[in-house]
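Bug: token stream looks shifted between consecutive jobs. Job 1:
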Amino acid sequence: MASKKSLNLCRAFLSNNRYVPLRQSFPNPNPKFQVLNQVSSQLFQTRSYSEIPKQLQHKPSVDPTLVPTTSPAAETLVPKTNETQKKKNIANKAPVSSSLNAFEIAKFSAIADTWWDSEGPFKPLHAMNPTRLAFVRSTLCRHFGKDPHCARPLEGLKIIDVGCGGGILSEPLARMGATVTGIDAIEKNIKIAGLHSERDPATSTIEYRCVTAEKLVEEERMFDAVIALEVIEHVAEPADFCKSLAALTVPNGAMLVSTINRTIRSYAAAIVGAEYILQWLPKGTHQWSSLVTPEEIALIMHRSSISVQEVAGMVLNPFTGKWVLSDDTSINFIAYGTKNNL
């Protein structure tokens, strides 16, 4: 007869919702997150996807009259700093440590040529991209008072795509009117992204650089919105990485981060299922102990002066093969926060 613990494991695996009691049965394999877990629940009071009014959820048919227009315009967000003072600040600033993970860089360098192959190793990202973009467009339009229905809803916004890879997110952001900078630590990714973007006049203006977020902090670059999707699970120190992202965000600006939750369901689906059974991803793409929970993200961002406003799960419909936004954050989730006006 199966033990009570075995039954709990089965229920957790089959459940469509997070099985919270099970979390206590598995010690966190990554000690650096233990302190975060003790206090993060007190900060994680963000709005869930179902709490957003239906008219404002991330769908193409949002009524633009319901989008608030009182958010500060993007051009008023960048602090005024003269060039002399900026150079002085750069000279006096201590070097910023890098959050690069050499193992992760080597791993993704090996498959860089396949970024634009929708049936290759990055097939899941291509399939997820429309859902990610719907969330990005909706949250940024609401925050900056933009019309999500117009042809270029992100017109006038300076956006950086951190860990841009081959540019599969940067290009649609540029087509929506944003002034886009894409950065990646892998030079091969940047070359591929640049060559691909030159094919379309709407994307040829993207600034691609092989540089780290920490380096741009030293240069005192700032953006209205900082986006890092499916990146934080591959860096050496998530807290330091988020601190750099926050430093790149203007006061009252927006920051978006997406990743995979650290749960038994994510291990079964994103690692065992996607990497070993279905082979959608190369084996070893994700390390379960390096994954970050929504609660940990909320605390890390809070410590970097970013207030998480909204978290949504991204769920794959196995029957249609389409990704949808949901309250279920047990596997994939995306978080949107705003920087405090210091």
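Job 2, same session, no restart:
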Amino acid sequence: MIKLNCVNLDRFTREFTQLEQKITEIIGKNNVLEIMLEDANRLLKFSLTKEKSLIEERDSLLITVNRLQQTLQEQCNLRVENERLKNGMVDLRQQNERAAEDGAAELQRLVSEMRAEGDRHKRELETVRQQCRREVEDAHRESFQQLEAKDAEVKTLLEKKDQDLEELKTRLKDQERERQSELLKLQMEFGAKLARVQSTAAQWSQQQQQQHSSNLLPQSVFKRKLQFFQEEKNKEIVALRQRIKELEENQRVGGLSDSRLKRRKI
């Protein structure tokens, strides 16, 4: 019985030592696990912080992308508008060139009409001179025929007729000078208006080039200026035609009155 109640101290000591070693190992592993847990928590916090930062960066990038898309859309719209304005400017330039060409053609036509009228007036004056010369020759022949019958009366009549002819020639010369002066004045006035129209067309072309480079004026301003230029041109053309018509009427009336006066005197 005494043997059964004895405790094996060596075994107990060995087992206790093993148990302590296991407990020590478990405590070491537990410490390692705690360290790993702390590291995992730190990594989790870092991951959460990084995720939050990435989310904020993603939101910021999305806002930036949206702004960039809006900016690109606005640039596309601006390019479309710029292209439309460029096309409008090209159309306005073409219309201006056509208007300038029409104005130049109209001015050339007026110059041709003026030259034709001047030639016609010269022919009319030459016709009047020839008619006067024929009438004078007829009067001389008639005077010479009457000279055989009434020498003294014919001499008096011839002297009177010579005086009338001199006066008529003087009047014809004065009227011719007046008509030439009127024609010269009309030509100078026409040249001045032509130069003013050409200067206005040049200034308008230069203003259009400057406006095209600045791209600041709208199409309505260009149209109003072009309409104003055309109205001024039409007014000057109407005034020139009226002046030519008046000159023709005055010359025609003057020619008729001169012819009647010469017939009465002869």
